Amino acid sequence: MRITEIGAGTIGVSWTVLLAAAGHDVVVTDPRPDLAEVVDAGVRRFGSADLLERVVCEPDLARAVAGADVVQEQGPERLEVKQDIWATAAAHAPAGALLLSSTSGILPTDVAARLDDDAAARLLVAHPFNPPHVLPLVELVAGQRTARDSVARATEFLRSVGKDPVEIHKEVYGFVGNRLQSALFREAVSLVRDGVVSPAELDRVVTGALGPRWATGGPFLSFHLGGGDGGLRHLLEHLGPGWRADGPTWGIPLSTRTPSRRSAPPPRTPTAPAARPSPPHATAPRPPCSPPGRRSWRSHDRTASRRPLRLRRPARPRGAADPLPGPLLRRGADRPGRRRLLGPRGVPARADPGFAELDVVGLAREWPDRPAYSRLLTSFVSMELSRVDPSMATFFGVHAGLALTSIDLCGSQEQKDRWLPAMRRMEKIGAFALSEPHGGSDVAGGLETTARREDDEWVLDGAKRWIGNGTFADLVIVWARDVADDSVKGFVVEKGMPGFTATKMEGKLALRTVQNADLTFDGVRVPEANRLPGAQTFADTNRVLRVTRGGVAWNAVGAMAGVFELARDYAVERVQFGQPIASYQLVQDHLVSILGAVVASLGMAVKVAQMQDDGTFRDEQAALAKRQATLMLRDAVARAREVFGGNGILLENKVGRFFNDAEALYSYEGTKEINTLVVGRAVTGIGAFVGRKPAKH
User: Fold this and answer.
1) pTM for this structure?
2) Which residue among 29, 171, 347, 513 has the highest number of C-beta atoms inside a 10 angstrom radius?
């Protein structure tokens, strides 16, 4: 399909990325003089450069809509501007084109007021939530003259690109999503203004309870499930009296909370003619009930005194500034639950600008505008990511750990200046290619991937396997054997170099979001400027690995913390034989055992990070931490899954994902056996890596 996007702001570019990734040709139009530059930068930021092949910029609106199957408008939020845009667009678009307006509150009847009946029949509001390429909801609102066929076409089109369209059955200002968040924000402002909580504390209340709950069930289903076997009716009977007592005053400053001062603004009337009849299920708004007397809702909360044990963020060293915006870091991590960090084709993180805006890449490195922070801080970032989703922690560890560290430790100053700033901003994603199809733990014994020098270029031949981020990385750190001196050297292979191919590995059981790839190098010519001058032997490869190996222990700690919270919450809420299963001794044994594993492995991981900071760190210490933490992780996820019983094998309960991911953490960055031998050599002084050769027969 050919789709025209009117407006090159954040929403327009976000739509462009989504639609191009879905295989559609997109024409972006906007009168701004820097249209091409803005679209190019936005597509690269939200998606990838290869999507630009499907994108055309055309500043002239009439030419841009010619031949379009769908026209989407994201113009300024002013009625007269939208009416002018659609007067031109409808006049020059094909007669059957679907016309969609993205507005946060202007009614479609008003937008279409100057259009003829044919164009008005094809126009409706399609209101996304920003950014559209990440958040699935689109609110569809038909105007008085919109044809039902147009609503059906819009629904089918949006579903085909991965969106979740919801039809709003009446034209109301703000539609539904904005009205809900507006109501919540009014109450939030009231609570902060009256000194009940601070803004940061209120954000924690939402991200630690309402956000995760509503993200999975919405208010009606959440309350229905909260009522147990009695459902929504039981919950309202239980909490309703308190809500009725205080409810009518919520959202009003405490100093003015009296019923007589609570009045609703007069309804706004559309500029178009008489409203269409309401659908059969629509009902008139209920008048506000009058409060029978002041009572505290807290008196009805029987669980208020049961505070769950939570792992707390470590205190900062005295005098040290915290570079992380707390609410942003904790948005997806205060309670386990997978953040939607995936783009339209399952590529993590680059599709979510909010993740890049955290600015947590390269925290341990000194930058011109930011000091170097401790390994302890960077390790806690990895732990928090893994607590929500070990796949995202692995993606981040490959990019910000292995790839960036390779360039930082082994690259020239020119290479650092060329690549590291873009990697910090996550405009360029990195991968680390060491493992090979025939070489895992024994790659130190000899790499099959070769490099040979030809004038000012190096020719790479061979293959790599299990390369995280490999399918979409912009920069791949490739370790290859120089055929001239048989030593290991490091190269930066850039995406799109002739002879370089990456194929996604299918059928993985664990870390399913991570895009592991098979890489092949068929005469790939890499300029000398892309060879890392500080990578001359496998000892240099080990310099990178010893910095990052301890991070796997932190990922294991985070995963254990995640399953502990899942199991604890489930045990408190799940009722069997008339009482929560948390009241049974065997269940508490599982919970305490998991918690003990979290605390023990966390202590070991913290010590390793502190030794990295003070310069006393050795390889065997990272090996021991990784070995023990992942061993305890396997036991912890098994116990957590057992707490869930049969429900533990359902993906919706998340514990099964951690169960599978634990197997990957247990195996990569050195198996238990290899790390055991590393530690064994350190404590005995005798290496046991190579046993006796098999006897000849």
Assistant:
1) 0.53
2) 29
